[in-house]
Task: inverse folding
C-alpha cells in the first residue's frame, strides 16, 4: 500500500491541471457552438422576414387588382415586343 502513495501523488499532480484545462476547453467549445447557432438563427429570421414580405406583396397584387394579372403580364409582353421592334435597325435595301 505504501508503494501506491507516490503513484497517486503523481496522478493527482498531473490529473488536476489536465482536468482543469479539459473543462475550460469544453466550456469554450460550447460557447462557440452557442454563438454559431445564434448567428444561424438570426440569418434564418432575416430570410424568413424577406420571404414573408414577398408573399405579402403577391397577396396584395392578387387581392387588390383581382385576377387580371394575366392580362397585365400580356400587356407588358406586348409593350416589350413594340419596344424591340422600334429599337431594331431597319434593313438597308439596294439602291
Result:
Amino acid at each position: 500500500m505504501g508503494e501506491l502513495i507516490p503513484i497517486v501523488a503523481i496522478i493527482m499532480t498531473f490529473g488536476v491541471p489536465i482536468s482543469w484545462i479539459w473543462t475550460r476547453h469544453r466550456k469554450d467549445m460550447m460557447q462557440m457552438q452557442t454563438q454559431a447557432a445564434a448567428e444561424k438563427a438570426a440569418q434564418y429570421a432575416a430570410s424568413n422576414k424577406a420571404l414573408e414580405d414577398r408573399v405579402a406583396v403577391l397577396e396584395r397584387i392578387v387581392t387588390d387588382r383581382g385576377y387580371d394579372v394575366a392580362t397585365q403580364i400580356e400587356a407588358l409582353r406586348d409593350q416589350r415586343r413594340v419596344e424591340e421592334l422600334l429599337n431594331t435597325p431597319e434593313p438597308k435595301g439596294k439602291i
Notes: The CA atoms of residues 5 and 11 lie 10 Å apart. The chain has one domain: 9-82. The radius of gyration is 36 Å. Helices lie at 4-64, 69-87.
